[in-house]
From TrEMBL:
Coiled coil: none annotated. The chain crosses the membrane at residues 24-51, 63-84, 96-118, 124-142, 154-177, 183-202, 214-232, 238-261, 273-300, 312-333, 345-368, 374-395, 416-435, 447-468. PANTHER family: MAJOR FACILITATOR SUPERFAMILY MULTIDRUG TRANSPORTER MFSC. This is MFS transporter. SUPFAM superfamilies: MFS general substrate transporter (SSF103473).
Length: 473
């Protein structure tokens, strides 16, 4: 143990010897991997119709292609961070890149939907070793608080940009090549990243190792996977069919057992006691809500634009560009607002923008069924992008501000898991709506989706009332 502690101290010293250019080079390398992770969450969504045709799959079940990745990613985030602290962050980071790259290769050559889903599961496992570990590497090399704050600001902007840029990038790749290109594109990026990691990223470990919570980890995977499976398969099996009713019961039992196990664990994966803090619970709900609204809208609109109005993947992706621009522009504005006036105002603004986006989408896609109102759809996209841009900084601020400093890492990890959970739930709900559209008209099949988006905006407005200002806390 003493030898390991001395090794850890040597690694920390290596990080402290880096000059400013080397530190920001490390930041760029880690941000490149982060961009890849975020991009793969949304780039596939635009190509679901083409993937369904390519592998001869039921379009209503294509949500699995997105959620197989997202559920595993969300479930393993905290454990991946613990493994990196124990066995070395650069080592786990490189392992994640290799797993992600090999899984991307498998996705690109997938002959069937089942094969593709398994490959996406592996890709999600690789992604879980990139996002939290890369952030830990950046925090380790950025010792000056002001420099670290700037780096984390850039970090948040890169992830938001990657999520928003996915549909445009995917549409362009599909137009130029085919759906498999959205996976092939990962390989050169992974190769360059591996070379740069070997050249410039120092090794480091955590000063204190977090014990692995294997029972909690397994239960979390079962809970998230079961919940998403019910949402995706419900329209096909029937929401009141015996199989689905048994699924409801099993998911509820797993959730109860998870809470009991985590309450008794010395180092739980997600401590239930954290949710006694109202501001933390609000931040988690806010993270889930904003990404449910974003991912549901993205999936449903891009599928309807292609299959409902006959637009190409490139045209459908291009229409989402204003959303990406709005999210990118308002992310730093939100960070400045949090620094100046606290998290409540930007959270409130995010909630109002998302509610308004839901209203625009309702009118553009559900009420005026005689023809798609493209200008109003674009306004809805812009408003949703404003909401996403405004929400992220205050959610992170609120998650960590109501807790002691030594629990900030756990709070941040849980908030990141909540974001991915929101993405998975939004995609699953969107997939259910797409499955129902085969037997119902456009207005009926999408109405519930835009009501959910408005509900998510309402949740953000309520959460803004519970927000805690880090400057005061």
């Amino acid at each position: 143990m003493r030898a390991e502690i001395r090794m850890s101290e040597t690694m920390v010293d290596q990080a402290s010897e880096l000059n400013a250019r080397q530190r920001w080079t490390v930041m760029v390398v880690c941000a490149l991997a982060l961009f890849l992770v975020g991009l793969d969450t949304t780039i596939v969504t635009i190509g679901l119709p083409q993937i369904a045709a390519g592998v001869s799959a039921d379009p209503g079940r294509m949500a699995w292609v997105v959620d197989a990745y997202t559920v595993v990613f969300a479930s393993l985030l905290i454990t991946a961070g613990a493994l990196a602290d124990r066995f070395g962050r650069r080592r786990v980071f490189r392992t994640g890149l290799m797993v992600f790259g090999l899984a991307s290769l498998a996705c690109a050559v997938a002959p069937s939907l089942s094969f593709l889903i398994v490959a996406r599961l592996a890709q999600g496992a690789g992604a879980s070793m990139l996002s939290p570990v890369a952030l830990a590497i950046v925090v380790n090399v950025m010792r000056d608080p002001a420099e670290r704050a700037r780096a984390i600001g850039v970090w948040g902007a890169v992830f938001g940009l990657s999520m928003a840029a996915g549909p445009v990038t995917g549409g362009a790749l599909i137009a130029a090549f085919d759906w498999r290109s959205v996976f092939w594109i990962n390989l050169p990026v992974v190769g360059v990243s591996l070379l740069l990691v070997a050249a410039v990223v120092p090794e480091s470990r955590g000063s204190r190792w977090r014990r692995l919570d294997i029972p909690g980890q397994l239960l979390l995977v079962l809970f998230l996977g079961g919940l998403v499976a019910l949402l995706i398969e419900g329209p096909h099996l029937g929401w009141l069919s015996p199989v689905v009713i048994v699924g409801y019961v099993l998911v509820l039992v797993v959730a109860i057992v998870f809470v009991l196990v985590e309450s008794r664990s010395r180092e739980p994966l997600i401590a239930p006691s954290l949710f006694r803090v109202v501001s933390f619970t609000g931040a988690v709900l806010g993270a889930v809500a904003i990404f449910v609204a974003f991912s549901l809208t993205l999936l449903v609109t891009t599928v309807l634009l292609q299959e409902g109005s006959g637009r190409s993947a490139l045209a459908a992706g291009a229409l989402t560009l204003p959303m990406a621009v709005a999210a990118t522009v308002f992310a730093p504005i939100s960070g400045n607002l949090v620094a100046r006036v606290g998290p409540r105002l930007p959270l409130l603004g995010a909630g109002v923008a998302v509610v308004a986006a839901g209203v625009c989408l309702l009118i553009a896609l559900s009420v005026w069924v005689t023809g798609l109102n493209v200008p109003l759809l674009v306004v809805g996209y812009v408003l949703l992008g404003v909401g996403v841009g405004l929400a992220n900084a205050p959610i992170t601020n609120t998650a960590v501000s109501g807790l002691p400093p030594d629990r900030a890492g756990v709070a941040g990890g849980t908030a990141s898991t909540a974001r991915q959970l929101g993405t998975a739930l939004g995609v699953a709900l969107g997939g259910s709506l797409v499955a129902q559209s085969a037997s119902e008209d456009l207005a009926t099949s999408t109405l519930a989706g835009w009501l959910v988006v408005m509900l998510c905006g309402g949740i953000l407005i309520l959460v803004s009332r519970t927000a805690v200002d880090a400057r005061l806390g």
